């Protein structure tokens, strides 16, 4: 069986209808479990105090913010190369999720930064790249709404997605590219000196998996909506022509 | 109840904003999904009736 079979809307609807309850159930259990674990059952950090608990929402949200854009990049490339509608509709469906995750990353970072860095915001490379990524998400969604022809909208938003990928890469790796700014290195680095202690790392990994499953569940729900919406428009057009 | 100390407001605000945004996204996705599904079903029924 080929992966391209799922480019058929009917096949996608059948498979996603089967997978959705499982993925959603697993997402709810994992996410709630991880947040309860992190919030109630991990100790305060000796420097950050209880603000360390923000790591369980900030880091997964930031990972999902850039990860969503990379998923949109892959599905946009599939559209540009193979012209599969389900692929580009999945990218369209994912954009509001990525935008929300970017917003959560920016908000929780600012809320944490105020007591820890003494400022809500700094024009630090990673923070600035994330703000630009947020604006790219807004632009991507606005472009879909602004163009009436769905195939033209798919083409132009896919090109925008390619351009925005530069900022998605910078958002993720800014602390490596520029060794400056307030933002610290990776919380889950393989380097033992940078790596957070295991007592924080395990609930954090669980939260990342929970956010990932929530993303998959929401993408499936929203892609199904986009497929139905496209069919609805096609039927309305057919009715008008008759 | 967990003891959050002097940063209680900071931590609760971060969690509050996150929960609000995630629940808002989930609610909007479900409401739009249900609305489009209803509209499509109505359209298909109407077209089947009219041939």
Can you walk through the features of this model?
The complex is a heterodimer of chains A (242) and B (51). Chain A is mainly alpha-helical. Chain A is 77% helix and 0% strand. Chain A is built from six helices and no strands. Chain A has helices spanning 9-40, 55-82, 85-117, 125-146, 150-177, 198-241. Chain A starts with 8 loop residues before the first helix and ends with a helix. Chain B is an all-alpha fold and 51 residues long. Chain B has one helix at residues 8-50. The chains are: A mainly alpha (242), B mainly alpha (51). The A-B interface holds A 35, 39-40, 44, 49-51, 53-54, 57-58, 61, 96-97, 100, 103-104, 107-108, 111-112, 114-115, 214, 218, 221-222, 224-225, 228-229, 231-232, 235-236, 238-239 and B 2-8, 10-11, 13-15, 17-18, 21-22, 24-26, 28-30, 32-33, 36-37, 39-40, 43-44, 46-47.
> What order do the helices and strands of chain B follow?
H
Through-space gap between termini of chain B: 64 Å
* CA distance, first residue to last residue of chain A: 39 Å
| Largest sheet properties of chain A | none
Estimate what percentage of residues of chain B fall within beta strands: under 5%
In helices, the fraction of residues of chain B equals over 70%
Poorly predicted segments of chain A: none
Summary?
The complex is a heterodimer of chains A (242) and B (51). Helix content of chain A is 77%, strand content 0%.
What is the fold's blueprint, element by element?
The complex is a heterodimer of chains A (242) and B (51).
Chain A: H1 9-40, H2 55-82, H3 85-117, H4 125-146, H5 150-177, H6 198-241
Helix pairs in contact in A: 1-6, 2-3, 2-5, 2-6, 3-4, 3-6, 4-5
Chain B: H1 8-50
